[in-house]
TrEMBL record:
Protein name: Pseudouridine synthase
NCBIfam families hit by this protein: rluA_subfam (TIGR00005)
Organism field: Streptococcus pseudoporcinus LQ 940-04
Pfam families noted in UniProt: PseudoU_synth_2
Enzyme class, spelled out: isomerase
Amino acid sequence: MKFEFIADRRTKVKTLLKSHDVSKGLLAKVKYKGGRIAVNGIERNAIYLLDIGDIVSITIPNERPFEKLEAISHPLDIVYEDDHFLVINKPVGYASIPSAIHSNTIANFIKGYYVEQDYPNKQVHIVTRLDRDTSGLMLFAKHGYAHARLDKQLQARAIEKRYFALVSGDGQLPDQGEIIAPIGRSKDSIITRTVDPMGKYARTSYQVVGRYAENVHLVDIKLHTGRTHQIRVHFSHIGFPLLGDDLYGGRLDLGITRQALHCHFLSFHNPFTENVSQHTIHLTDDFENVIIDLQK
C-alpha cells in the first residue's frame, strides 16, 4: 500500500513521516520487509534531507495475518467501508475477540470476510470494542498504519461514540446530567467493577430522550473516558441500572435479557480523506419491543 506526502519544510524523511504518524516500527518494517521510500520517484533512505515541495512516497508491505485467529465465514452488517476503515453493526451475543470461553467472535468473522474478499492485508485491527451483549457500531482499521493513525485519536478522545440505554430506577432521572465517579475493580470479583474513591477517573454524560411506564427511560449517553463497564457501573451507581443487566442490578422482567446498551453513533476523523466519518444506526428489535410494550 502506497502513501504520499509533500514536504512543507526542510527536514529529514523520517521527521516528515513521523508527523504523519509513521512510527519507528513501521519504518523498520518498510526497510526490512519489502517496503520502499522514494522522494520525487527516486528511492531514498529515512535520513535523506528534503526540500520544500518534495513528494515523499512510502510503500508499506502487506501484513501477515495472525495464524492463530481462525477465519470464520459469517454474514456482516457493514455500515461503511473504504480502503482503510470498516464499520459494522455488531449483533448481540458475540464477543469482540477470542478468549478461553469465546471462540466464535467478531474478530473471527472479520478475518473470514477479509479472506473471502482476498484483501492483501488480512490482519484484524479492532479500534473500538463492544462487550458481548452490547450491540451497535464497531470500528476496524484495515491495516496497521490506519490503526496507528486512529490510536492517536483514541488517546486524544477524538473518536466520539454515543450509546442508547434503557434504564429504570426509583425517583426522577433529570432530563440531562453528568456522572463523574471513579471506577475500580470489585474486591470480590475479577469481572465486575464498582465506584471506588481509589479507582480511575470516569466521566459519563447523558440526555433523556424517552420516558415510559415502569419508570423506564431511554437515554442517549456520551463517554468521556473509557473504563470497563463504565456506563453500566455509573447508571447502577445513581440508582438507574440498565434493563437486563443482572450483573449490576438491572430489571429482568421487562422483555430484555441482555444489558440494554446499543452504540448508535460513531464519529472519527479520516486522516486519509481529511473528512469527518460519521455514522448512525437504528435501535435493535429488542429495544423497540420493550418500548412498544411500555407505551401500551
